[in-house]
Design brief:
8-stranded mixed sheet; globular; alpha+beta; 2,3-Dihydroxybiphenyl 1,2-Dioxygenase, domain 1; 18 strands
Length: 315
C-alpha cells in the first residue's frame, strides 16, 4: 500500500540561496548534502524534519545558472506544506520581511498561503488541525505553533484529468475525496498527513518545461523492498513504462510517468538518512555514494561553497 508523499524533488539555480530560503527562512532541517547520483558534479540537497521522515522531505537538484522552467500542464504546479492552525499570519509576515509576497487562499474549507521561492517555484502553506500529530523540526525561531510539519499535498496540472484519475484510483490505491470546480482531490487510504494529490484540469493551458523553479518529480511512499517489488509488478501489468529498482542509498526507487506526463517515483521508507551519519548530525558533512567516493577530492574542487546553518560549510 502507498501511504502518501515520500519526497518532492525540484530544480534550483543557486545552492546558497536555496539553503537560505528552505533552511533559514522556512526552518527546515538540512538532513543530507550529497550529489546527484546521475550527475555527480552537482549537489543534491535534502531538507525535512528532525530525522528526514518520509512525508517531510523536500529535495533539490542544484544546477547553478540553470534557465528557469515554464510551469504548466504535465507538471507539479504547487507543493503544499502543512502548518499549525492559526500560523498563517506568522508566515505571511516572515515571508514579507524577507521580500516574498504571499496570497491568502481557501480550498476545501482549509485556509492557506500561496507564494513562490526565489526561483519561482510555487509553494503553499495549508493550515491543519491537531489531528496532524507529526512533530516538526524546531529551533529558536520556530515552535510547535508555527513550524512546518511536513507535506500537506501536491497539485498536478493536467490538460485532462480522467486518465490520471483512473491510474490513481484503479491502480495506485487512491480514492477521490473532494471536488471543487476544476480541482479534484485524491488521497491514500491511510491515516496521517501528506497523503493528498490534487489534479487541476486546465484544458488549453500551455505545457510545462523543465528548469529551475520547477518540480522534477514527486515520490510516493512504500514501506519496504518487498512492497517496491510488488508495486513495480502492478505498474508494469498496467502497461506503464517503469524503471528498474534503483538504489538511492537512503531509499530504493522506481520511476514512471502518469498519463498526463508528471514523473512519479515510488520510494521505500527504509533505510533512511541515518544510514551513513548519526541522526543528531544529519547534513553535517558531504556524503557520497560508494561509486563516487573515490572522486571526493576532485568534487571538492568542483562543487561550489555552501554555508549551512550552525556554521557548517561545504564541501
Amino acid at each position: 500500500m502507498l501511504t502518501g508523499i515520500h519526497h518532492v524533488t525540484a530544480i534550483t539555480s543557486d545552492g546558497q540561496k536555496n539553503v537560505d530560503f528552505y533552511a533559514q527562512l522556512l526552518g527546515l532541517r538540512v538532513v543530507k548534502v550529497t550529489v546527484n547520483f546521475d550527475d555527480p558534479g552537482s549537489y543534491h540537497l535534502y531538507y525535512g524534519d528532525e530525522f528526514g521522515s518520509p512525508g517531510s522531505i523536500m529535495t533539490f537538484f542544484v544546477w547553478p545558472g540553470a534557465h528557469h522552467g515554464r510551469p504548466g500542464n504535465g507538471q507539479t504546479i504547487a507543493t503544499a506544506f502543512a502548518v499549525p492552525a492559526g500560523s498563517l499570519n506568522f508566515w505571511a509576515l516572515r515571508l514579507a520581511a524577507a521580500g516574498f509576497a504571499s496570497t491568502r487562499t481557501t480550498r476545501f474549507g482549509q485556509s492557506g498561503l500561496a507564494f513562490v521561492d526565489f526561483d519561482g517555484l510555487a509553494l503553499e502553506m495549508i493550515e491543519t488541525d491537531a489531528s496532524d500529530i507529526r512533530k516538526p523540526w524546531l529551533n529558536r525561531e520556530f515552535s510547535t505553533t508555527n513550524a512546518i510539519k511536513g507535506f500537506h499535498s501536491v497539485t498536478l496540472g493536467e490538460e485532462g484529468y480522467e486518465h490520471t484519475a483512473k491510474l490513481l484510483t484503479q491502480t495506485m490505491g487512491f480514492v477521490q475525496t473532494r471536488q471543487e470546480d476544476s480541482r479534484f482531490r485524491y488521497a491514500t487510504q491511510t491515516e496521517g498527513g501528506g497523503r493528498i494529490i490534487d489534479l487541476v484540469c486546465q484544458p488549453g493551458a500551455r505545457r510545462g518545461s523543465t528548469g529551475a523553479g520547477v518540480v522534477h518529480h514527486v515520490a510516493l511512499r512504500v514501506a519496504d523492498d518487498a512492497g517496491e517489488i510488488e508495486w513495480r509488478r502492478k505498474l508494469v501489468a498496467a502497461n506503464l513504462n517503469v524503471s528498474p529498482i534503483m538504489d538511492r542509498t537512503y531509499f530504493h526507487s522506481i520511476y514512471y510517468r502518469e498519463p498526463g506526463g508528471v514523473l512519479f517515483e515510488i520510494a521505500t521508507d527504509n533505510p533512511g538518512f541515518a544510514i551513513d551519519e548519526p541522526a543528531d548530525s544529519l547534513g553535517g558533512s558531504l556524503r557520497l555514494p560508494p561509486g563516487v567516493e573515490a572522486h571526493r577530492d576532485s568534487l571538492r574542487q568542483q562543487l561550489p561553497r555552501l554555508n549551512l546553518p550552525g556554521g557548517v560549510t561545504m564541501p
